[in-house]
């Protein structure tokens, strides 16, 4: 419906999509042209949303992102902080690889992209872009970084050990992709934007909530 309205009025539509549109095979970063293959209903419906937007003919920016966090609301980092305060031992998956991405970074990117797209209609910047922070890690690497930084910021945590475990040790009703690496070359080259390493944004969020 939003896409139809945007097509009728000539408005731009910004849509946030996900790494979960892919099947997570392999070990290299996927670009926007890579074949999709969602493993879950969530990924499938996100992919269908993308397709409907493209088919509507509206001008759009589809931003595929991953592992989103913010200072407000719930997220994986906050779950880890809570569990690390309660328990001596955590077990965290180390074979799913991706990039934690801050909602603030996404907001900045979106603002810049919309400004450029609207100012230069002849360039036809409508399309799909991978939008994640730089670098990569596992959920285990992410959790370890959060605990280390929280301690640096003076938080007293009970946790002594963070055990790395494979996905198979963490049964979940919805399957998650193992490889969530997204190649952001297109976004950076098209809009001249820099994507900082994921640690920078996570550090900033922790300083905001703990500092
Ligand atoms: N979290 C992640 O790691 C990732 C998320 N995304 C995408 O980002 C988007 C946001 O995800 P996330 O922040 O995790 O989701 P949340 O569930 O945390 O937030 C969804 C927000 O949408 C609002 N909302 C839901 N339904 C409606 C509706 N019918 N009308 C108006 N508002 C509505 C909710 O309002 P209320 O609080 O009032 O219910 C809530 O504020 C989704 O499209 C998701 O697919 C993509 C990649 C990664
Ligand atoms: C709580 C916990 C989770 N985990 C694992 C399970 C899971 O694979 C991973 C992250 O858990 P979450 O439930 O936060 O993950 P999840 O909700 O699947 O996160 C995803 O959300 C959707 C919206 C997206 O689009 C994705 O990009 C991604 O961010 O951490 C552990 O290994 N140990 C733990 O103690």
TrEMBL record:
Q: Which GO terms describe its molecular function?
A: dTDP-4-dehydrorhamnose reductase activity
Any one Gene Ontology cellular component term annotated for this protein:
cytosol
One Gene Ontology biological process:
dTDP-rhamnose biosynthetic process
Fetch the Pfam families from UniProt.
RmlD_sub_bind
Recorded protein name is dTDP-4-dehydrorhamnose reductase
Q: Which domain of life is it from?
A: Bacteria
Q: Which organism does this sequence originate in?
A: Sphaerotilus natans subsp. natans DSM 6575
Q: What is its EC number?
A: 1.1.1.133
């Amino acid at each position: 419906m939003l896409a139809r309205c945007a097509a009728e009025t000539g408005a731009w539509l910004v849509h946030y999509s996900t790494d979960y549109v892919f099947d997570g095979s392999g070990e290299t970063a996927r670009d926007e042209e890579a074949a999709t293959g969602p493993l879950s209903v969530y990924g499938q419906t996100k992919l269908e949303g993308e397709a409907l937007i493209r088919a509507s003919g509206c001008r759009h920016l589809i931003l595929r992102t991953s592992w989103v966090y913010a200072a407000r609301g719930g997220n994986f980092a906050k779950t880890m902080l809570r569990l690390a305060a309660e328990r001596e031992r955590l077990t965290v998956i180390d074979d799913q690889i991706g990039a934690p991405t801050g909602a603030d970074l996404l907001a900045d990117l979106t603002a810049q992209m919309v400004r450029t797209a609207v100012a230069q209609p002849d360039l036809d910047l409508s399309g799909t872009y991978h939008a994640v922070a730089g670098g990569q890690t596992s959920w285990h690497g992410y959790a370890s970084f959060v605990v280390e930084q929280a301690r640096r910021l003076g938080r007293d945590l009970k946790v002594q050990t963070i055990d790395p475990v494979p996905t198979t040790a963490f049964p979940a009703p919805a399957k998650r992709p193992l490889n969530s690496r997204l190649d952001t070359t297109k976004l950076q080259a098209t809009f001249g934007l820099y994507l900082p390493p994921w640690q920078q944004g996570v550090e900033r969020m922790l300083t905001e909530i703990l500092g």
